[in-house]
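User: Teach me something about this protein's shape.
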Amino acid sequence: MKISVQELHKSVEKIFLSIGCSEFDSGIIADVLISAEARGIPSHGVMRIKDYLGLWSKGRLNPTPSIEVVYETPSTLVIDGDLGPGIVIAHFAMNKTIEKAGSAYTAWCSVRNSNHFGIAGYYSLMAVKHNMTGISMTNANPLVSPTFSIDRMLGTNPLAVAIPAGRFDPFVADFATTPIARGKLELLEKMNKKVAELLVQDKTGKTSTNPSILKDGGSILPLGGDFQHGSHKGFCMSAIVDIFSAVFSGANFGPFVPPQVAYLEPKNESPGKGLGHFFGAMRIDAFQPTEQFLEYMDLWIATFKKASTIEGFENIIIPGEPERDNELLASINGLEIQDVIIDELTASLSSFSISSPF
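Assistant: First, the predicted structure itself:
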């Protein structure tokens, strides 16, 4: 179903206002979720609303958090999110990081006691608006087995880096450190489609094509799939995100990260607080004059765009280009939302006695 961006934004705002979020926070949540839809990442879009509402109903998401800076140096800070909506906490944290980088030239922030924060790229792009490179990452509930293991020890642990350019759009790399995200498995399940080989495994360690395998004790594989295809490197990447997000802040790490769905209960005992994130912002004039950097970044992009392609492909895709193309089309034609997700959204609106426009 095609839905206008404005219409969807209003409906999402109303849902989060209904659970007690402020008008400002509800608007930020709607911005991030709809940005995911517009950029072609529906696994982190409005389908996540039912998960957030489920956490709220279980008392595991605080709609009115007292977000606090608990440790600070001239270029670093640690933030406690008071179990608020991860999107709200991440937005606050990245703004603080950008503010600190304004005077220190580079700044770094680790966050604890948070929840799922949507798409990582949203926060990295916040820094680009200030002529800064933005970095964002988060750990996630354990669904991923390290290489040679069947135990679920890590999350999909995404990482995003956004770098400004001059005449070109920013370079934006936004990816999970696994070959598939949980939300994409959920989408495939809803659409009755199978998963490709070497993305997930069953509880015995055999590769599977079943998108519901996580419910049967299976796990997601690290980026690479198996050792022969470099899964140990995917494991390393995921571990780095976990350590930066959790060990630096005092959040829960690895197998202790609380599940971001209401039907799974968190562990009774855990070493840290909530879920963790990590953010960075670097002024580009910390390295060379701004205009000089932007021109050189343009040269980098132009050089790669001239690379010869294999048969069947017209051009090299610079990270971030497909998402920007999707955003442009969404602004013109509206958002294409799966009917099953519309049904879930309508049910959420109805639960708060809000009439659905869909």
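Now, about its shape. The domain at 2-286 is CATH 3.30.1370.60 (Ribosomal Protein S8; Chain: A, domain 1). The chain has one domain: 2-286. If you'd like, I can walk through any region in more detail.
User: That's plenty for now, thanks!
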